Amino acid sequence: MLYTSYMTTKPNDPEECINFKKVSWRTDTKVNYWLFIAVVAGLANEILFHTIVPPIDGVLRENFLTWPVGIRLIIESVPLLAGLLWARGLARFIRGMDELHRRITIEAWLIAALATLGFLSIWPLLDAAGISASVYWTTHFHGEFTDKPRFILGFWLLLDKPPSIFLTLCLLYGFYIPGYFILIRRYK
Amino acid sequence: MKNKLRELRAAREWSQADLADKLGVSRQTVNAIETERYDPSLPLAFKAARLFKLRIEDIFDDNGKP
Fold first, then answer.
1. What ipTM describes this predicted complex?
2. Which has the minimum average pLDDT: A50-64, A106-120, B49-63?
3. Residue in A120, A104, A121 with CA at minimum distance from that of residue A15
4. Which residue of A3, A10, A65, A114 has the smallest Cβ count within 10 Å?
5. Separation in Å, CA A33 to CA A38, A88, A177
6. What is the model's pTM?
7. Which residues of B touch A (CB under 8 A)?
8. Which of B21, B28, B39, B47 to mutate to test the interface with A (most CBs of A within 10 A)?
9. Which among A15, A98, A187 has the least Cβ separation from residue B25?
10. Contact (CB, 8 A) for B5 and B12
11. Residue B5: how many CB atoms within 10 A of its CB?
12. Residue A97 to chain B, least CA–CA distance (Å)
């Protein structure tokens, strides 16, 4: 929504986007529908077929492992394919932007992509160093969560396993939004 | 990069939004060029030169940088 809110007429106007003066859900959906599909498919995948949090398995996890390999491959590939189609749509959209905004957006996505890559690369090392587990156990007491905010715990638990498409997209957007706001300040 | 965009625009009593509209860019782009925070692309510089009926070097000055 951040960058698609004012694309009913070209060129895109970054100020209109930032101040949320006009929001075009139609345009936003047009650019981002593959992202929505990727996120929903990724989340459904997590809930149905994978371990949601360490003690809880996905709803269909046991059955899923007995399904034919081809079917499992197709199911697992849906979020990735949708993610790639979203990247293609986003690249086309960026090409049509006003040149200053194009530069800012590309820089913000570059930072987000590198930060996500760095984060996902360092995570197994933190995990191997026992940092992940120690944080997990300090936030978890006799099956009851302590006073840590729930959403932080939820995010932590989501990270406490191999990265998924859902998590990767969340991280990408999580890094993109602050990056965009920091970069846009340069040109004000 | 130094430029005379602000003076040329003011001489014609155009707002930044008017100029942005004529050049097909956002108002923020015009503002960033005028305040020398952003150097325009070559196609945009040509567009501006054509709009003001001047040469590119009459509008933009890079102080003879190689």
1. 0.85
2. A50-64
3. A104
4. A65
5. 9, 12, 19
6. 0.73
7. 24-29, 31-32, 37-38, 40-41, 44
8. B28
9. A98
10. no
11. 22
12. 9
| DSSP-assigned states of every residue in chain A | -TTTTT-SSSSP-HHHHHHTS---HHHHHHHHHHHHHHHHHHHHHHHHHS-SBTTB--TTHHHHTTS-HHHHHHHHHHHHHHHHHHHHHHHHHHHTS-HHHHHHHHHHHHHHHHHHHHHHHHHHHHHHTTHHHHHHHHTEETTEE-SS-HHHHHHHHHHSSS--HHHHHHHHHHHHHHHHHHHHGGG-
**What 3-state class would DSSP assign to B54?**
coil
Amino acid identity of residue A73, one-letter, is L
- Measured between CB atoms, does A13 come within 8 Å of chain B? yes
| Helix, strand, or coil (residue B32) | helix
Cβ-nearest to A13 among B27, B32, B40: B27
Query: Within its chain, how far is the Cα of B31 from the centroid?
Result: 9
Q: Do B28 and A187 touch (CB under 8 A)?
A: yes
Minimal Cα–Cα distance from A122 to chain B, Å?
Answer: 35
pLDDT band at A170 (very low <50, low <70, confident <90, very high): confident
Joined together, the tokens standing for residue B2 give: 């130094």
Average pLDDT (B31-57) is 93
The predicted pLDDT at position B55 comes to 94
Q: Which pLDDT value is given to residue A7?
A: 44
Check residue A53 and give left, alpha or beta (phi > 0: left; psi -120 to 50: alpha): beta
pLDDT at A115: 95
Mean pLDDT of the region A42-60: 73
Q: How far apart are the first and last CA of chain B?
A: 13
Query: Is the torsion defined by CA of B25, B26, B32, B34 positive or negative?
Result: positive
